[in-house]
Amino acid sequence: MQILVFSLTGAVSGVISGLFGVGGGIIIVPALTYFLNLPIKTAIGSSLAIIIPTALMGASKHFHQGNIDWKVVMSVAPMAVAGGYAGAWLTQHIEPAYIRKGFAALMIYVGIQQFFK
After folding, report:
1. How confident is the model over 63-83, as pLDDT tens digits?
2. Chain-centre distance for alpha carbon 1
3. Where does the chain have alpha helices with state H?
4. Which of 8, 28, 32, 48 has the least CB density, counted as fewest CB within 10 Å?
5. Is 5 exposed, middle or buried (CB count within 10 Å of its CB: 0-12, 13-18, 19+)?
6. Which residues of 102-111 are buried (b: 16+ CB within 10 A; e: fewer)?
């Protein structure tokens, strides 16, 4: 059963990542916490590690299609890296229940914004 959950999670998150440009965390984190009962912090860390090869593959394909604006990449990436470090550091100081609720609130907010734009 776990192999099926892993395979479906990977396939769905990969398609979502390549299609919409999201890291897959919106699929991976809930799947790991809900179906596999991983603690939220472990699910987040695992998701980030899973996203590395996913992002590389998706970015490679988009590069070949001419869909990357390197000025944007070079402008945003340094602070995104710093923000990733800061966010991971913050998980040490925030209770898992608050992280889970914050994640859910962010997904609802972003979903509503995207739907009505």
Report:
1. 999 999 999 999 999 999 999
2. 23
3. 2-20, 25-34, 40-64, 70-90, 96-116
4. 8
5. middle
6. ebeeeeeeee
